[in-house]
Amino acid sequence: MFGYLILLFTILPALELALLIKVGTHIGVGSTLLIIIFTGTLGATLARRQGFLVLQKIHNDLNHGIIPNSQLMDGLMILTGGILLLTPGFITDCLGILMLTPWTRALIKKWLRRKLQNMIETGQIVTITPFQQRDDGYEDIDIN
Known about the structure:
Elements: H1 2-27, H2 29-63, H3 69-86, H4 90-100, H5 102-121
């Protein structure tokens, strides 16, 4: 976990800065700034539009008594993608676009589900609850 934080807060910004400088020397500072402003605006627009669509799907699922697991994960990924596109830099822009594109988001979502399932099975994610576990010899039966 500590390694991910170092990557996120030191290495990634250093790479972004180096890439911005490199691009700025090739196409000019003004053009580089325009690209950054454009991707930020694009990210906000796409995230807002897709966010509203996901909220409608969540609302529809809840009205039909369905737990919106997939839509909640979509919403989190859209939020993350929008934040990445608002962050200045080309690497974060690419990652943000991947999270806002529906078919790549589906691939990332599938990978995340496998990763989370593996972490739960290996005990890397532990849930703590204030409620006692019931061990009365009976199993819960789903009647639906």
